[in-house]
Every structure is written in C-alpha cells, then in structure tokens.
Design goal:
Tyrosine-type recombinase/integrase; Integrase_catalytic; DNA recombination; mainly alpha; about 100 residues; Integrase-like_cat_sf
C-alpha cells in the first residue's frame, strides 16, 4: 500500500485518495462520456470555463471575484475576458446623456 502524499493547499489540482494528482484527461474523458449520454453537442471543458467567466462578468460580478473563482489573476481575467456588451454601452449612454440608446 502506497503512502498517502499530503495535499498542498497552495496548488490548483485534484488528488486521488492516495495523494497522486488526477490528470486533466481523466476529467475530460468522464465529461465527454456524460455529455454523449445526455446527447449534448460537442463542447470542451475549456469552452465551458470560458463561458463561465464571460457569463459572470456579463452579470456584473466583480472581476476580482470571477478571477478568484476561476483561479486567475485579476489582471489576466480583465485583459482576456473584459468585453463591452451592448447593455453596458446603453447603461453608459444613459448615465452620460440621459438616454436609453447607445451612442
């Protein structure tokens, strides 16, 4: 029986019961089997992660919170994911000019 390796709290990884790291392909394979059984279209876990970040930012969740949730540095999150949505432009126009139309 192998000795259990202690899990380090400063890393972003999953560990098996014996402390060995679980490789990402393990989750990918399980995810695709579930996706196929559910008859969902092909999508990767990476795409779902990107969608999660975009949805949270679009919902107005602070970038610092989104970054922490996904294990990112806030600068990376804002550089890669920050986009201006039409609703944001409309809100900005309303605040600046008292109108509900984007300029």
């Amino acid at each position: 029986m192998a000795a259990r390796k202690p899990r380090r709290e400063d890393t972003h990884m999953c560990a098996a019961a014996d402390g060995e790291p679980v490789l990402p392909r393990t989750f990918t394979g399980k995810f695709h089997r579930i996706r196929i059984a559910a008859e969902f279209p092909r999508i990767t876990l990476r795409n779902l992660r990107h969608t999660s970040v975009s949805v949270m930012l679009h919902a107005g969740i602070p970038a610092s919170t989104v970054a922490a949730w996904h294990g990112h540095d806030v600068r990376m999150t804002t550089a890669v994911y920050s986009r201006v949505y039409d609703e944001g432009l409309t809100a900005a126009a309303s605040a600046m000019f008292g109108t509900d139309k984007a300029v």
